[in-house]
């Protein structure tokens, strides 16, 4: 029987050692990753964990940013490890994508119970054969392999096109302003050319829509931005 995988995201070596030892003793495969945007993406995609633990005790703001980043490509539950005195930042972490939190100093029994409960809910909500898939009529998005199948044909997307599609598809009917899409997808870029978003939307439609001039999936909201068609998600 395969063991559930947990990734611990932290720069605190003592916390990583404790969680690795404690969770391993209780039957989990545990992997540790530095709390760095570029470093954390690869192990999450490689291991497809059933739980991600994000340390917010060293830098709560960094933890919030990491939650936002992880939520762009993973639906795995996120358990925040927080300092008990930082209630407002804990709430921000939950708003950014965290599913639950536990405060330091860690109570071992409570920690194990929360880990097991989050994994149990996750596995119940997402059967193993659908856990990393987004299904829509004529469109399937595989978050693990970063692949897209449109109307039975595999469609090759660039990294930014894929990120843009996933962001929209995970939030059907939510209107994203062009500025917001640019900030979320091109956050590291200094160019600031909003036409980049429009070009990528155009390219996406050419690749996934049956009729790009009358798109079914990605709608333009005049004067506001773009949204993923809620009817496609029903």
UniProtKB/TrEMBL annotation:
<feature type="domain" description="OmpR/PhoB-type">
    <location>
        <begin position="131"/>
        <end position="230"/>
    </location>
</feature>
<keyword id="KW-0597">Phosphoprotein</keyword>
<dbReference type="GO" id="GO:0000976">
    <property type="term" value="F:transcription cis-regulatory region binding"/>
</dbReference>
<feature type="domain" description="Response regulatory">
    <location>
        <begin position="5"/>
        <end position="119"/>
    </location>
</feature>
<dbReference type="GO" id="GO:0000156">
    <property type="term" value="F:phosphorelay response regulator activity"/>
</dbReference>
<feature type="DNA-binding region" description="OmpR/PhoB-type">
    <location>
        <begin position="131"/>
        <end position="230"/>
    </location>
</feature>
<keyword id="KW-0902">Two-component regulatory system</keyword>
<dbReference type="InterPro" id="IPR039420">
    <property type="entry name" value="WalR-like"/>
</dbReference>
<keyword id="KW-0238">DNA-binding</keyword>
<dbReference type="InterPro" id="IPR001867">
    <property type="entry name" value="OmpR/PhoB-type_DNA-bd"/>
</dbReference>
<protein>
    <submittedName>
        <fullName>DNA-binding response OmpR family regulator</fullName>
    </submittedName>
</protein>
<dbReference type="Pfam" id="PF00072">
    <property type="entry name" value="Response_reg"/>
</dbReference>
<dbReference type="InterPro" id="IPR016032">
    <property type="entry name" value="Sig_transdc_resp-reg_C-effctor"/>
</dbReference>
<dbReference type="GO" id="GO:0005829">
    <property type="term" value="C:cytosol"/>
</dbReference>
<feature type="modified residue" description="4-aspartylphosphate">
    <location>
        <position position="55"/>
    </location>
</feature>
<keyword id="KW-0805">Transcription regulation</keyword>
<keyword id="KW-0804">Transcription</keyword>
<dbReference type="Pfam" id="PF00486">
    <property type="entry name" value="Trans_reg_C"/>
</dbReference>
<dbReference type="GO" id="GO:0032993">
    <property type="term" value="C:protein-DNA complex"/>
</dbReference>
<dbReference type="GO" id="GO:0006355">
    <property type="term" value="P:regulation of DNA-templated transcription"/>
</dbReference>
<dbReference type="InterPro" id="IPR011006">
    <property type="entry name" value="CheY-like_superfamily"/>
</dbReference>
<dbReference type="InterPro" id="IPR001789">
    <property type="entry name" value="Sig_transdc_resp-reg_receiver"/>
</dbReference>
<dbReference type="InterPro" id="IPR036388">
    <property type="entry name" value="WH-like_DNA-bd_sf"/>
</dbReference>
């Amino acid at each position: 029987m395969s063991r559930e995988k947990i990734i611990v995201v932290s720069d605190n070596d003592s916390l990583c050692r404790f969680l690795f030892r404690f969770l391993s003793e209780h039957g989990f495969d545990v992997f540790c990753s530095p709390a760095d945007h570029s470093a954390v993406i690869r192990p999450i995609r490689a291991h497809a964990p059933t739980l991600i633990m994000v340390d917010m005790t060293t830098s709560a703001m960094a933890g919030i940013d990491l939650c936002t980043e992880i939520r762009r490509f993973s639906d795995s539950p996120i358990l925040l490890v927080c300092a008990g005195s930082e209630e407002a930042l804990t709430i921000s972490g939950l708003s950014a994508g965290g599913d639950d939190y536990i405060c330091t100093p860690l109570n071992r029994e409570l920690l194990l119970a929360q880990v097991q409960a989050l994994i149990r809910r996750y596995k119940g909500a997402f059967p193993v054969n659908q856990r990393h898939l987004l299904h829509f009529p004529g469109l399937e998005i595989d978050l693990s392999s970063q692949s897209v199948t449109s109307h039975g044909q595999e469609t090759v997307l660039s990294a930014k096109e894929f990120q843009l599609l996933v962001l929209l598809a995970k939030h059907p009917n939510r209107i994203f302003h062009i500025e917001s899409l640019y900030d979320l997808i091109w956050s590291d870029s200094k160019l600031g050319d909003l036409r980049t978003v429009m070009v990528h939307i155009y390219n996406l439609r050419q690749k996934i829509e049956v009729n790009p001039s009358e798109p079914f999936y990605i709608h333009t909201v005049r004067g506001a931005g773009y949204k993923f068609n809620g009817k496609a998600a029903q």
